[in-house]
Amino acid sequence: MATSGKQHTRLGEQAWNKMSKVNAEFFALTYGAMVMQLVQDFEDTAAVNAQLDTMGYNIGVRLIDEFLAKSGTGACADLRDTAETIAKVAFKMFLGVVAEVANWNADGTAFSVVLYDNPLIEFVELPPQHCELLYSNVLCGVIRGALEMVQMKVECRFARDVLRGDDLNEIRVELKEVLAEQMDDQYFEGM
Amino acid sequence: MIFNFYIFNRNGKCLFYKEWNRPQNTLQHDDGEEKRLMFGMLYSLQELVGKMGGGDGKGALQSFTTDSYTLNFFETASGLRFVLNTDNRAGDLTAILRHIYGNIFVDLVVKHPMFEPKAGVPLQLPMFEEELEKYMKSLPCFV
Predict the structure, then answer these.
(1) Residues 6+ apart with CB under 8 A from B51
(2) A residues 56..115 contacting B (CB < 8 A)
(3) Is A178 strand, coil or helix?
(4) Tell me, what does this protein do in biology (chain A) (predicted)?
(5) What is the pLDDT of residues A19-35, one digit of tens each?
């Protein structure tokens, strides 16, 4: 696995070099302003978390094509390959940071993406009344949306969050189902 | 010479169709039927090619040639299928289909706010069409 890990890292580097960049502080502040707006609009923290997840999902279902096209990765062989690709290639390509894959469950159907360095949370502190806010929940949605487009239904949640006092960020990804190809209705005529 | 071009989504809906040269069209009377048949054929062919090749067989089908045309095929992991029909002198067009996907489709369709990745509605995006038209016409094998 060591060699394939290196290959993922290299692909990530290449993809990162190809991407157009925005200023990291500008990005972090813009994201912060958006979360602030959601917090004001929804009041209920759970609703904000859900909204961030939905936004992420809508990003993910689009992002997958840019990812596939520009990273040059094809279909993944198995879930381990998928996990490494998300952590080493996708995170590098879109956020400029590399994540680690850890904590596989015994069945090999769930893993964690561990993020030591989360560019979204620069400058951020959670006030006590919003201690339940999953500030970076958009990332869970992105992973969920992107994987759904390659026929993997997953559940994704923040297991640990630096903003909430943990020592690192951990996104738990659990594979629920591999979706079957679903033909459009027009192919079922006369059957 | 480039004849025509299709984009299908994973469910077999035709998202986009464009033809440049098509002197003879025996399925003219029924547009939808042709697209259905095209996707159905590719789907079956992919299955068969995969089974004959062993392994998971995905990505095995790239093109096939008949007496009168060559069909070039490219499928993405996200289930989009790009189909480009040309005459038999156009050569290998895999790189061209990849370019259409990576540079034209991603930039002008996927990033377009009106595009809904899961809806499967035919694309009506003039910028995409223009850019595709320009790119196709710039290819040496176009005429």
Answers:
(1) B57
(2) 61-62, 64-66, 68-70, 73-76
(3) strand
(4) May play a role in vesicular transport from endoplasmic reticulum to Golgi.
(5) 888 898 999 999 999 99
Q: Does the structure show a pLDDT above 70 at A189? A: no
Q: Which residues of A touch B40 (CB under 8 A)?
A: 187
- Alpha-carbon gap: A68 to the closest alpha carbon of chain B (Å): 7
Taking 70 as the threshold, does the pLDDT of residue B12 lie above it? yes
A123 touches chain B (CB under 8 A): no
Q: Look up residue B140 and give its amino acid.
A: P
Pick the CATH number of B2-138 from 2.60.120.260, 3.30.70.120, 3.30.450.70, 3.30.450.40: 3.30.450.70
State ipTM.
0.85
- Write down the domain spans for chain B: 2-138
Q: What's the confidence (pLDDT) of residue A1?
A: 45
**Cα distance between residue A57 and residue A46, in whole Å:** 16
The closest of B83, B78, B127, B59 to A148, measured between CA atoms, is B78
Helix (H) or strand (E) holding A134: none
pLDDT at B29 over 80: no
Q: Count CB atoms within 10 A of the CB of residue B112.
A: 14
Spatial separation of the C-alpha atoms in residues A98 and A155, rounded to whole Å: 21
What is the per-residue pLDDT across B70-118, written as a single tens digit (0 to 9) for each? Answer: 999 999 989 999 999 999 988 889 899 999 999 999 999 999 988 888 8
Q: Where are the domains of chain A?
A: 5-179
Q: How far apart are CA B4 and CA A182, in angstroms?
A: 26
Q: What is the CATH number of domain A5-179?
A: 3.30.1380.20
- The 3-state DSSP class for residue A133 equals coil
